[in-house]
Amino acid sequence: MKTKKFLKWPLIIGIAIILNLFFAYAIKVIYPSQEREDFCPQEQKIERITNAEDCIKKGGQWDESFRGVEEKGYCNQEFLCSQRYQDFREVYEKNVFMILVVLGVISLGLSFLTGINQVLAASFSLGGVLTFIVASLRYWELAQDWLHLLILGLALAALIWLGVRKFKDIE
C-alpha cells in the first residue's frame, strides 16, 4: 500500500505536466505562429540609406539623433515590418491566452466529474491550474495593469473555489 501512495504524487505531477505539453503542442500544430522573418525577410544585400526621404520610402524610420563621422542620421530599415510583426504577436498571444484559459477551465471541470478516480481528479486540477499559470506568463508582458489585476483575481478565486470544493469534507 505504501508503494501506491508513494507513486501517486509523481503520477499526478507527470500527468499535469504532460497535459500542458500536449496543450502547447496542440496549439503549435492547430494554430501556428509566424516568425519574424515572415514579416521582415533578411536581405542578402542591405543598401546603406543616408537620408530621411529614402529611408521612409523603404518603410524605415529615420533617426537624426544618431551621428556618425559621415552620417547625418540612421535608418532603421525594418521599422514597419517590425511593427507589423509586433502587432501580429499581440493578437496571437491574446488568442493563445484565451485558448489556454478555456483549456484550463475544461481541465478543472474534468477534475470534478463524478466517478473519476482520485489520481485523475488531482491531475486535472493541477493541470488546469498549471495551464492558467502558463497562459498568464505567456501574455503577461503584453497585458495592461488592469488585466494583470483581473488575471490574478480570477486565479485566486479559482484556487479558493477549488480548495473549498475539493477539501470541504476534510477536517
Report on the architecture of this protein.
By secondary structure, this protein is mostly helical. The chain folds into two domains: 2-34 and 86-167, no CATH class; 41-77, no CATH class. Helices cover 68% and strands 4% of the residues. It contains six helices and two strands, in the order αααββααα. It has helices at residues 2-30, 36-39, 52-57, 79-111, 118-139, 145-167, and strands spanning 61-63, 74-76. A two-stranded antiparallel ribbon has the order 1-2.
Task: Determine the mean pLDDT.
Answer: 84
Distance between the termini: 23 Å
Total helical segments: 6
Round the Cα radius of gyration to an integer and report it.
24 Å
Q: Could you state the order of secondary-structure elements as H and E? A: HHHEEHHH
Give the fraction of residues assigned to helices: 55-70%
Total strands = 2
State which percent range the strand residues make up. Answer: under 5%
Arrangement of strands in the largest sheet: 1-2
* Quaternary structure: single chain
How would you characterize the largest beta sheet? 2 strands, antiparallel
**How many domains?**
2
Q: Give the overall shape, derived from the CA principal axes.
A: elongated
> What structural class do you assign from the helix and strand content?
mainly alpha
- Outline the low-pLDDT stretches: none
